[in-house]
Amino acid sequence: MRWESRTTLSLFLSSFLGLSWVLVIISFYFQSVELFIITIAVMLLTYGTRIYLKKAATSVQIENKRHTIKLFKGEHETLSFSIQNQGNLPIWNGELRFAVEPVIHIAQLEVVQNTKNLHYYYVPFFLRRNERKNISFSIHAYKRGATRIRNLQLIIKDLFGLGSRQSSLQGFSQTEVLIYPELSEVQGVEQLSTYEMGSHAYERSLYENLCAPAGAREYANSDPFNRIHWKATARTSELKTKVYERSIEMRWVFILDLSVKRKNSPGQVSNNIEAYISQLAFLCSVATKRGIAFEIHINLEPEGPASSMVLEVGEGNAQLSKALELLARIDDTRPLLSFERMSLLLQKRLSERSVLIRLGEPIQSKEEETFYQFLKSIGHMCYDVKMSDGYAYLSKIERVRN
After folding, report:
1. Which UniProt keywords apply (predicted)?
2. How far does Cα 74 stand from its chain's mean position?
3. Residue 180 parent element (H or E)
């Protein structure tokens, strides 16, 4: 951990230190033993305070392990600091100050300052020499988002309050808190049919996976010649036909469009972003329960080298965990991708027939309507999540009539 430190003395000590040598000269001139003793005593106190603050600050270590706390809105968890005094001087009057984004609440700590984007908290502590303490407090998940301990400061004061040394952590704490989005129901998704030939085993499918043989059965006159199982025929002396696993392809592609659909608001994020994110979280949970592979595309500029904010295709609980983490990290202050750029990226990635589910404000532009009609023409099943009377429901994307 890299700290930046500075020492501050009280106005009395700072002023006296500036006049100390003048007072020494005056004491000699007037032969005042009392003034000389007082001046030397205060000078020793000043330098002693500086030495104490420097040694005490450098002996304090704060544990900074990499750790992620994952919560849903409304849940509680404990956040801890491990602080140790490795020196021989006690810390009589220490403070920890830090800031977090307002996605969590810390009720039992004193609030130093509140801003729109950060809440600052204060934790007093006392450490004997060579003592370690765990400073713990309960956090309440308030809303979706991600936060780290920011602006971490260690403040040590001397016993008499004549000076202080402030050490600021350069960078972020390794401890992170993720608040997952709520799951908001989307009606109609339970009737969504995705029966296509593919690789997922399914006993009622009309399609077969030719890469997954399941055995042999008695030959029927309608069976093609290339389906005869010659090894089983030779072994039983009766014609046998190859049997394959029934399979379907159940791949859902979620497209989260966070843009405002108004000409006078280009590049702005919709006010309903939290509703769309909650609906997508629900759809991801449904896909996981049904054993369906899914992927996510979001029209936000990513932080890394990727061209767009994407969750690659996957399935199961591990994929759901990745999806919820991605949704928790969505930052509405990041710039949006233009529709032209987003549509080009999607065309490159959507090479296989899929079920496309779009979330966002209703389609209004002719370009966007044409894009989804094109995807339908090449075999994709395209749906839109719509809102009515506070309820979300799944609807097929149809051509907009003028």
Report:
1. Membrane, Transmembrane, Transmembrane helix
2. 17
3. strand 175-180
Cα dist. 193→183, 249, 372, 377 in Å? 22, 11, 19, 18
Tens place of pLDDT for every residue, the chain, 402 residues? Answer: 567 888 888 777 777 777 787 888 888 888 888 888 888 888 888 888 888 888 888 888 887 778 889 999 899 998 888 888 988 888 888 888 888 999 999 888 878 888 878 999 988 888 998 899 888 889 999 999 999 888 888 898 887 778 888 888 766 677 899 999 999 999 998 777 654 444 444 444 434 445 556 677 887 877 787 778 888 888 888 888 887 554 445 589 999 999 887 666 666 888 899 999 999 999 999 999 988 899 999 998 877 666 668 999 998 999 999 999 999 999 888 888 888 899 999 988 887 788 999 999 988 888 888 999 999 988 888 999 999 888 999 999 876 554
Pair type for strands 150-157 and 145-148: unpaired
Q: Which amino acid is at 139?
A: I
Q: Which residues of 364-395 are buried (b: 16+ CB within 10 A; e: fewer)?
A: eeeebeebbeebeeeebbbbbbeeeeeebebe
167: Cα separation from own chain's centroid: 28
Question: How far is it, in rounded angstroms, from Cα 54 to Cα 5?
Answer: 9
Single-letter amino acid, residue 230: W
The pair of structure tokens assigned to 302 is 């990513």
DSSP letters for 265-306? STTPBPTTHHHHHHHHHHHHHHHHHTT-EEEEEE-B--SSS-
Q: Name the burial class of residue 61, with classes exposed (0-12), middle (13-18) and buried (19+) by CB atoms within 10 angstroms of its CB.
A: middle
User: Which residues, other chains included, contact 393 with Cβ-Cβ below 8 Å and sequence gap of 6+?
Assistant: 186, 187, 188, 385, 386
